[in-house]
Amino acid sequence: MRSTQIVTIGLVTVVLAAAACNNGPRRDTGRIYMPDMAYSRAVETYADHSNLKDANIYYDATPVAGTVKRGDVAYFPLAIDKAGDTANYVASKQIVNPLPALNEKDMLEAKRLYNINCGICHGEKLDGNGPLYKGGDGPYPAKPATLVGDAKYENMPAGQMMYSVTYGRNLMGSYASQLSTKQRWMIIHYVKSMQPGGAKPVAVAADTTAAPVADTTKASK
């Protein structure tokens, strides 16, 4: 009897060990005790939010119309055109960049923002030859706009560029959720400065505050 129990225990152990060592694909997801903790319900910036419409939630990661973030500049005053209409796109030519000429420090920041958000398509040299196109060998088949070297974009007013960056244009999507209004205007300042005849950054005024003169007088004894 004792030997039978030993054999039974041995067989069970072998079966369990073999099951534990099975590295084949698992066909079921198993059970999750608290799915809300296992799967994030947070709204992520670049995720597909179309399913939220079923719950009457319309989130597109863009600022609420008419609001201005603290420290930012006024929002772009023109709304996006309806399908088939270009009235506001044309009217955007009259919008002037509200930011004054950038100083050297702000121009470096504008260049950094451009390289992060725009350079992948338009290229570090603004020639439309970024990593996504790469002379036609990249994963993107259509050449992005040549911001320096194409008269169409060199003559494009800053306001019309802002319209395109804010709402997207043709194959380019909107960057209103990635860049604040001020950052978008800064990038446009940088693009215009790189184009022929563009304004270069203004020099930062030197600090003319005189250093306090040390008191060399000796206290009277």
TrEMBL record:
The keyword Iron applies. SUPFAM superfamilies: Cytochrome c (SSF46626). Keywords: Heme, Iron, Metal-binding. This is Cytochrome c. Transmembrane segments: none annotated. Residues 105-195 form the Cytochrome c domain. GO terms for molecular function: electron transfer activity; heme binding; metal ion binding. It comes from the Bacteria.
